[in-house]
Amino acid sequence: MSKIKVVQWTTGVVGKPSVRAIVAHPLMELVGCYCHATDKVGQDVGTLCGMEPLGIKATNDIDALLTLKPDCVCYMPQFPNIDEMEKILASGCDIVSTAYFMTGTQFGKDEVARLRAATIKGGSSIYGGGVNPGHANIFALVASAGCSRIDKISVLESVDATPYESAGTWEAIGFGLRVDDPAAPPLAERAMPSFKEAVEMMANALKIEVDEIRFDVEYAAATEDVDLGYMKIGKGCISGLRCCWSARVKGKAVIELKVAWKLGTKLEPNWPVEEGWLIEIEGVPNIRCKYQQTGGTRDFDPATLTAMPMIHAIPHVFAAAPGIITADQLPMVTGAYCVNV
């Protein structure tokens, strides 16, 4: 059996563990790598990812990468680009993506139609996720199978996110703005569209007809100037947020996807955090379970937790029918080939 040929798209926070996982996977072969930054062009991908040289040079030439006839692109920029994705899919190459994409509804009907047409033309598939949105939502859906009645199902990501060293990510959400800046709430909602898409995916999997999905957010302010090393936050500016996407039927919240993130410890209110993902189901029976990485904040590795669900999904996406695929349409994705024996 020939290996699945994979191109890595970017070598940022999530891209680095992705490259390491692809290289280690017995069913996959890394054949190329795309980078946005011009100073990375021509550099060895292994060197860019803190590994031994791999003999593969990073490039910003999309056509050159597609000439390699990859089977899959691990698409991991900060935000998705419809033109790029359409071109990749139309070439016959699958996509697994952590770039704020699950269903594509955030882009509108015309753009979704473009992506679907590209998958049909290329006979390809696209699957989006990560740890959250993505893996945590799947965890909740699996837990729901133990219920005979579900009144509400909720997923909460609650962490001190300081170790996630991506200033661009946090600034795009509104961290660093004044807490009373009226631009902050709509900025947060626009910057995290895949959370809404995750709620849509869960509703579809649970066969719920949703009336609306509502977004609510509140903020915590830095009590002093904060220097995180990769980002500075001024006193009185956003250093924490709690937000919720709630799917509602007849005015009642039936699905909630919530996040509570803080950067640093000098903020007010200084909300306690779960340091993980909390799944709660109200129904018959009530269910509560926690998905948590152990080892403490210093060892917290959100990048690997984000990348690995997508890497493990590649063989299933490769075998899937063309189209935009959601988690409820795939076989069970496990940590196959990762057991250390």
From TrEMBL:
<dbReference type="Pfam" id="PF19328">
    <property type="entry name" value="DAP_DH_C"/>
</dbReference>
<dbReference type="InterPro" id="IPR036291">
    <property type="entry name" value="NAD(P)-bd_dom_sf"/>
</dbReference>
<feature type="domain" description="2,4-diaminopentanoate dehydrogenase C-terminal">
    <location>
        <begin position="142"/>
        <end position="334"/>
    </location>
</feature>
<protein>
    <submittedName>
        <fullName>Dihydrodipicolinate reductase</fullName>
    </submittedName>
</protein>
<dbReference type="InterPro" id="IPR045760">
    <property type="entry name" value="DAP_DH_C"/>
</dbReference>
